[in-house]
Protein 1
Amino acid sequence: MTDQQANGSTQNGQGPQFSLQRIYVRDLSFEAPKSPEIFRQEWSPSVSLDLNTRQKHLEADFHEVVLTLSVTVKNGEEVAFIAEVQQAGIFLIKGLDAASMSHTLGAFCPNILFPYARETLDSLVTRGSFPALMLAPVNFDALYAQELARMQAAGEAPSAIQ
């Protein structure tokens, strides 16, 4: 009975709600400018990863969060490949205060999207005949906290992260 009451109160909108509606690839690109010559060289890569998130309010309590992973891999001084994925999700989020909403969109949602983006990127790179990247996990909570501190030091309003 307690479970039914707890579920009923959430379904009636009396408490915070969070629901993943859809995960999808929004954009995907791969370029290997030095192919096929790059495959004949000794492989000693250096990897550069750029990470970005953005959020967009869709309608009512629906939000789109897009996680972008951009990887540039060089073999010596030559670019072996450039790969980018924009992994997106639609989330139903309601009943949160502004600070909690900002944290959910800026850290919690990207944490959900990252494994999908990492797998998509690995698949893309191996299809280009390169070794999988096997990117390490990312601590989006720490990145969110750093961005909040940067914004406060710059005198920007923390709600701008939304």
Note: The longest strand covers residues 78-94.
Protein 2
Amino acid sequence: MHNIAIISSSVRIGRNSHRVALFFQNYLQQNALATVDMLDLYLYNFPVFDERLRMMKDPSPEILDFAQRITKADGVILVTPEYNGGYPASLKNVIDLLYPEWKRKPIAIATASNGQFGGTQVMTSLVFSLWKIGAWVVPAMYPGPKVQEVYDENGTPNDAEGVNKRAKTFVDELLWCIEAGKLMAKK
């Protein structure tokens, strides 16, 4: 069984994108698709990093834990809100913290917003940042429009059938990329 890390990237009080992260955690576990490792940046409470991990003289145990969990993951679901057309500084902070840990790592992007477009405006800048560090961005996305209305605080959607159908397409693409990456690594 694959190990998928879910990065819940918002650190704001009252964040709604975390509902989408919880939904994917529940979805993967309930359908026995993968083991899940939730990496909640709110709980990490990282400072702004002034250097990449590999250049740090004395990284904290939390930094080493985060890096090890990303390394161990077969793939990542990155859940991000859209703030004024961009992604949160907390996410940029951890993307820039690591480098070899992201190399060829399949990353599926789920976006969320309170509006009708579901955070899709954040995709361009986020994909570019991930591409620049060598991550493998999965060619599927999961926009979460009106997230505060669609998911409750535990990640349970009010339209389970419709949300699960979209999630299946998204997760299937991530799982395919994980398998393809493993096959290529054997060559």
Note: The longest strand covers residues 136-144.
Protein 3
Amino acid sequence: MYSTTVLTAFVAQHYLTVPDPGPEGVPHSHHFEVELTFRGPELNEYDYLVDIDDARAALEHIADRYRDQLLNDLPEFEGYNPSVERFARVVFDRVTDVVTDDTVTELAVTIWEDETAAATYDAAV
């Protein structure tokens, strides 16, 4: 299995909406790092798994969408607790809409909210 990873970082804000969230229940910032890992068993005719320029463009679009935003205010989080786990799924859905290389069979999105805590959503594409 081949894999190709691209990453970026940006600052965004959120607050948790679960009962008794403690200090996480007030708006606060995170320096998020987002990793996209594309996987597949075959390379294309140019010996690429994924067009890395397309992967980077998708990641840049993600960073532009969420940089300096309050996640709670965005429509993709409406009705959801904007946890880092939910954020990983939201990013997964956005990336799989735009990066459609036939050789990519799986995508893992890992979002780090600080240097010691991250969540990953991965699935077949």
Note: The radius of gyration is 15 Å.
